[in-house]
C-alpha cells in the first residue's frame, strides 16, 4: 500500500505545521510566542454559545440536509442581502465544513486535468494545493508590495489563457491584509467581462475585519454582470471567532451548488448540526461587537507595523484588513546569526526567530512571495509588544 498520486500533489499546510510546533514547544515549557495561527484570540460570543447549548437541549443532534439546514441557509441569504446587496435563494447556498472545505468542494467539483486557476501571490497556502489535488494547474499572478499586494488588471489579463477555469480573489487578504476597493474590483471585472468562460472565486472570509474606514466590497456586488459566474464565499471562523466550529458557506449558481452538494454527500455529509445552529445565531444576532473587536485589532496592527518598520532592512506595509502583516526583508538575506547560521532564505529567517528569539512566524515562501513572513496579530497587546521586541533584538544581532 502506498499513498495515492493525488496525495503526492499536495503538501501539509505550513501554517498548521507552525501552530503544531508552537503547541509542542509550549508543552515542553519553552517560552515561545506563536504568531503563526490565523485565529482570533477573542472568544466566540456568548449568544452564539447559548444557541449551540440550546440546540443540544432541543435534540438537534441528528443528520441535517447535506449542504445545510434551511434555517442556516435563510440566515445566509439574509446576510448576503444585508451586507453585500446580493440576492440569493436557499438553493443557491451551500454550507460546508469551514471555508477550506468550500474551496475544496468548488475546485474538485469543477476542475479537470489541464484546467488552470489564476491565483494572485502572495496567496493563502491552500489555494494552489487544492487546485493541484484536483489535477489542475495553478497560474500564479504577481501581486507584490509595489502593487499594494493586489492584483492589477494588467497582471490578470496576462495570466488568463484559453485553459483558465477560475480566478481566485481574496479580500481582505490572507496573508497580507490587503483589501480591494470597489473601483479596483470594477477594473478587474472589466477584464473578466471579456472572458465569459472564466469563473470567479471571491473569498470574503475577512469581510468584517477592516480598518481606517475601509469600505468592503465583493466583486458580484460591484460587477453585477459577473454575478452568474461568481461563487461568493464566506464563513463564521474569523469575524465570529468560530474557527473550531467549522462553518463555511457560499452563494452561487444553483447548478454549481448542486455539484458541491453531490461531492459533499460522499465526503463529510452535513456540517455539524450544533455548529449550524450556532452559525445561524451568529448571522442573525447582534453585530455591534464586530466594531469593538476591530478597534482592538487596529491598535495591535498599528503597534506591530510601527515596531517592525523600526527594524533596519525590514519593510512592513499597513494592511486594510484581516489580522496579518506581511513584512519583506531582502536586505536581511545573506546575513549571519550570532551562532554562525547563514540566513539565506525566509525559511531560514523564521527558523532563526523560532530558535533564538522564541517567536513563531510563517515564511513567505509558503505564500508564494519571498523574502517575507506572515505575522498574525490576533493575540494580546502585551504578547505582541514582547514578540516584536524579540524580533528587533534578533535582527539587530545579525551580521
How would you characterize this protein structure?
The protein has helices at 14-27, 46-57, 70-84, 99-108, 126-133, 153-159, 182-192, 219-222, 254-265, 273-284, 288-309, 346-357, 381-396; strands spanning 33-34, 93-96, 116-121, 137-142, 164-170, 199-203, 230-235, 248-251, 324-325, 359-360, 362-363, 373-376. By secondary structure, it is α/β, with parallel strands linked by helices. The strands form three sheets. Strands 2-8-7-6-5-3-4 form a seven-stranded mixed sheet, with helices on both faces. Strands 9-12-11 form a three-stranded antiparallel sheet. It has a two-stranded parallel sheet with strand order 1-10. The protein is globular. The N and C termini lie far apart (49 Å). The model has no long low-confidence stretch (mean pLDDT 97).
Amino acid at each position: 500500500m502506498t499513498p495515492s498520486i493525488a496525495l503526492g500533489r499536495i503538501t501539509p499546510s505550513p501554517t498548521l505545521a507552525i501552530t503544531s510546533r508552537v503547541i509542542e514547544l509550549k508543552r515542553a515549557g519553552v517560552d515561545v510566542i506563536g504568531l503563526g495561527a490565523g485565529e482570533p484570540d477573542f472568544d466566540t460570543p456568548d449568544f452564539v454559545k447559548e444557541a449551540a447549548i440550546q440546540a443540544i437541549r432541543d435534540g438537534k443532534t441528528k443528520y441535517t440536509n447535506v449542504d445545510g439546514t434551511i434555517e442556516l441557509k435563510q440566515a445566509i441569504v439574509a446576510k448576503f442581502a444585508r451586507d453585500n446587496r446580493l440576492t440569493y435563494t436557499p438553493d443557491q447556498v451551500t454550507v460546508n465544513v469551514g471555508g477550506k472545505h468550500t474551496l475544496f468542494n468548488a475546485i474538485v467539483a469543477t476542475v479537470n486535468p489541464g484546467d488552470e486557476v489564476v491565483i494572485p501571490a502572495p496567496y493563502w497556502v491552500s489555494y494552489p494545493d487544492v487546485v493541484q489535488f484536483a489535477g489542475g494547474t495553478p497560474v500564479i499572478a504577481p501581486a507584490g508590495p509595489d502593487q499594494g499586494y493586489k492584483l492589477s488588471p494588467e497582471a490578470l489579463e496576462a495570466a488568463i489563457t484559453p485553459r483558465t477555469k477560475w480566478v481566485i480573489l481574496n479580500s481582505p487578504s490572507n496573508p497580507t491584509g490587503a483589501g480591494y476597493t470597489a473601483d479596483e474590483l470594477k477594473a478587474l471585472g472589466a477584464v473578466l467581462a471579456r472572458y465569459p468562460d472564466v469563473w470567479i472565486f471571491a473569498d470574503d472570509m475577512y469581510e468584517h475585519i477592516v480598518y481606517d474606514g475601509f469600505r468592503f466590497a465583493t466583486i458580484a456586488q460591484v460587477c453585477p454582470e459577473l454575478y452568474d459566474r461568481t461563487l461568493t464565499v464566506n464563513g463564521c471562523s474569523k469575524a465570529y471567532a468560530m474557527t473550531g466550529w467549522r462553518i463555511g458557506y457560499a452563494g452561487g449558481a444553483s447548478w454549481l451548488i448542486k455539484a458541491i452538494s453531490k461531492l459533499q454527500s460522499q465526503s463529510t455529509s452535513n456540517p455539524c448540526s450544533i455548529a449550524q445552529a450556532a452559525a445561524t445565531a451568529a448571522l442573525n444576532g447582534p453585530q455591534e461587537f464586530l466594531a469593538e473587536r476591530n478597534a482592538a485589532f487596529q491598535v495591535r496592527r498599528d503597534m506591530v507595523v510601527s515596531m517592525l518598520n523600526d527594524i533596519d532592512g525590514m519593510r512592513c506595509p499597513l494592511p486594510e484588513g484581516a489580522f496579518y502583516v506581511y513584512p519583506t526583508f531582502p536586505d536581511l538575506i545573506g546575513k549571519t546569526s550570532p551562532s554562525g547560521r547563514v540566513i539565506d532564505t525566509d525559511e531560514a529567517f523564521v527558523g532563526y526567530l523560532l530558535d533564538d528569539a522564541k517567536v513563531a512566524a510563517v515564511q513567505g515562501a509558503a505564500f508564494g512571495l519571498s523574502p517575507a513572513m506572515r505575522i498574525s496579530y490576533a493575540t494580546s497587546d502585551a504578547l505582541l509588544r514582547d514578540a516584536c521586541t524579540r524580533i528587533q533584538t534578533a535582527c539587530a544581532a545579525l551580521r
